[in-house]
Amino acid sequence: MRRYGKNPDEDDIRVRPNRKGSRPRTNIRPQHADAAEGMVLTVDRGRLTVLVDDREITAMKARELGRKSAVVGDRVAVVGDLSGAKDTLARIVRVEERRSVLRRTADDTDPYERVVVANADQLAVVTALADPEPRPRMIDRCLVAAYDAGLRPLLVLTKSDLAAAGPLLETYGALDLDYVVTSRDTLLTGGADAVRERLAGRVTAFVGHSGVGKTTLVNALVERQRTTGHVNAVTGRGRHTTTSALALPLPGDGPEGAAGWVIDTPGVRSFGLHHIDPSRVIHAFPDLEPGTVDCPRGCSHDEKDCALDAWVAAGHAEPARLDSLRRLLATRERREGD
Fold it and tell me: Model's pTM, two decimal places?
């Protein structure tokens, strides 16, 4: 058997051919320093609509991003055909660092975490005062997710022509939440201005269960119209008409060409909090949190020695708020015990 030294330079050395070509493999990826920056507006079956300057382009995720996905609100670096012409396709080569992430799970037993939106500043929790009836537990869950993500919560109450807003607002009075009350008639006559003022200069994600009038509200705020649905008279539930999240600009001028951004998300029937540590849930109840100072170490806030009972009895917070906290914690505890 013929052997060669360290530096064989003989012409008759046999080299095994590379079936995939002679190009050497490398782990070094291009930096794409000349990539354009854009904002993801919507995602549909692997195709992403990205706003680059004033053009909407269609793009797909580059293979080098691996399992990392881009969601609505992400700032991304894009290369390829950026003309926005029909049948053109660009490539997303980088997802920039996110300043905020709103997450949820399907329910409290589902370990799979879903990113709802990225880089939002505010979470507008939309709920109807009637038809369908308001769901305070759903509101509480959205508030927990908002505080956990570092978003400013905004409570938007719709259909005030069907029921008064006072009783529901009293439940959240101690939270000092910003809120706005609307009705279908006022939206048609310029009543959306009160909502628009609270969205100016911000990226706001809208969440709410189906049938609360979320898309009707969004249509009153922006120029691009989305399909609306109705509430089932038997079940009291709405029909999903928004099937994917979509970022829409508010009319007007701003630092990025819009007065603000609205992200309309699909209606949800549950807002799972599997990804949130139960010990952080109390942070969503700032009216109750000071009362935990005298709680025993490791207090679950749902036991005999919990200091919150005395705190509420002394009039520092509403009993309904403590009940809401404990209902939420009980849901989390059932998940852990399964």
Answer: 0.79
